[in-house]
């Protein structure tokens, strides 16, 4: 589990879920690991409710640290941004994604995460870098298409992010083309299924309205 607290060592401790169901924790850092307020000095069996402190500040329950993330829910950038509320936290996830087993990550999780990172880059005014990430994510998802509702919806969400980028830089004609493509995909998919959530469709409609308002103002 990547932790963005800089006071936590790069490899701080090891948590093992053993074959018999017990959980063991071993400290691997000179900064120390605390178990329920006591210094951990050797490999120790713990309960899920026990509190671990890594370094001077970071605290979490054992359960929080071993709980598996549901990467299948990463169908749009909003979900990813709620999980990683800063560019730095999201970059840690992207940098360590190769360390996760292939059965943990869905094939669309990383492209969607890159589109979320593109949103952070846009907020920073780094439009060229954002465009490169969006195009990379879009090309990857386009090649993945197998007719499934989920992948079509995820691809539509990348188009929404693309439209947002071109809206921000004033390329309204390209933005309109992208958002119309996204909405047409959402409209033909069943509603309220994975990859075509109310949240995804609402954002697309809001961006479409913004683009049209900007175009009307320029006439």
Please tell me about this protein's structure.
With 219 residues, the chain is of the alpha+beta class. It folds into two domains: 13-66, Tumour Suppressor Smad4 (Sandwich); 71-218, Serine Threonine Protein Phosphatase 5, Tetratricopeptide repeat (Alpha Horseshoe), CATH 1.25.40. 52% of the residues lie in helices and 12% in strands. Strands 4-3-6-7 form a four-stranded antiparallel beta sheet. The protein has a three-stranded antiparallel beta sheet with strand order 1-2-5. A hairpin with a 2-residue loop joins strand 3 (33-35) and strand 4 (38-39). 30% of the residues are buried.
Q: Indicate the low-confidence ranges by residue numbers.
A: none
In total, the number of domains comes to 2
By secondary-structure content and strand pairing, the structural class works out as alpha+beta
Under CATH, the topology of the largest domain can be stated as Serine Threonine Protein Phosphatase 5, Tetratricopeptide repeat
Oligomerization category of the chains in this entry: single chain
Instruction: Please give the largest β-sheet.
Output: 4 strands, antiparallel
Order of strands, main sheet, comes to 4-3-6-7
The separation of the N and C termini measures: 52 Å
What gyration radius follows from the Cα positions, in whole Å? 21 Å
* Count of β-strands: 7
| Residue share in helix | 40-55%
Number of helices: 8
- Overall morphology: elongated
Q: What share of residues are in beta strands?
A: 5-15%
CATH superfamily of the largest domain: Tetratricopeptide repeat domain
CATH architecture of the largest domain: Alpha Horseshoe
CATH class descriptor of the largest domain:
Mainly Alpha
